[in-house]
Design brief:
By secondary structure, this protein is an alpha+beta fold. The protein has 5 helices and 11 strands; from the N terminus they run αβββββββαβββαβαα. The strands form 3 sheets. Strands 1, 2, 3, 4, 8, 9 and 10 form a 7-stranded mixed sheet that branches. The chain has a two-stranded antiparallel ribbon with strand order 5-11.
């Protein structure tokens, strides 16, 4: 009995240390990230080995499809990816991390020549304002009123599309 209690105590100590280690290993946003970016999708970049998610927006996922103004299905995820690549146009990108997400990516405000890439994506209708506390609200309103990009036809919010997709896979 005593041996079982001792073993149980050690298990509890190990579990507590593992939990503390997990929370202590979570990193904070780092220094600015600058360099040549590889576009992963409409709101994600790779700069060197650092994965970056554009702060405050949500773009369609790479495999997501939408409908254009004529009701024709198109790959809005690939269109958003190309739009971000075109906005960068092989120029150096500078990102100011504001958070680290659950996938250990830096969530950052990224710019090319002082132009906010997230705002460019929203204003063009390739992404939606997403948890930005209104940072891109005017840009989204402008895109919606002009019926640019996603707003020209029909689309499912990227966050909703991901939830549906993940549910269907399980």
């Amino acid at each position: 009995m005593r041996r079982a209690k001792s073993f149980l105590l050690w298990l509890v100590i190990i579990a507590v240390l593992a939990v503390i280690g997990h929370f202590m290993s979570r990193r904070s946003p780092g220094d600015p990230i600058t360099g040549t970016a590889r576009v992963m999708d409409g709101d994600s970049l790779l700069i060197g080995s650092t994965r970056v998610r554009l702060h405050g927006i949500d773009a369609p996922e790479r495999d997501q499809e939408c409908k254009d103004a004529n009701g024709k299905t198109y790959s809005c995820g690939r269109t958003a990816t190309r739009a971000l690549a075109n906005a960068i146009a092989r120029r150096s990108v500078t990102c100011e991390p504001v958070a680290v997400d659950r996938y250990d990516r830096d969530v950052a405000i990224c710019r090319v020549n002082d132009v906010d890439l997230a705002e460019t994506m929203v204003r063009g209708g390739y992404a939606v304002d997403y948890f930005s506390r209104g940072r891109y609200e005017d840009a989204e309103r402008e895109a919606r009123n002009a019926r640019r990009g996603l707003w020209a036809g029909e689309f499912q919010a990227p966050s909703s599309w991901r939830r549906t997709r993940c549910t269907a896979l399980h």
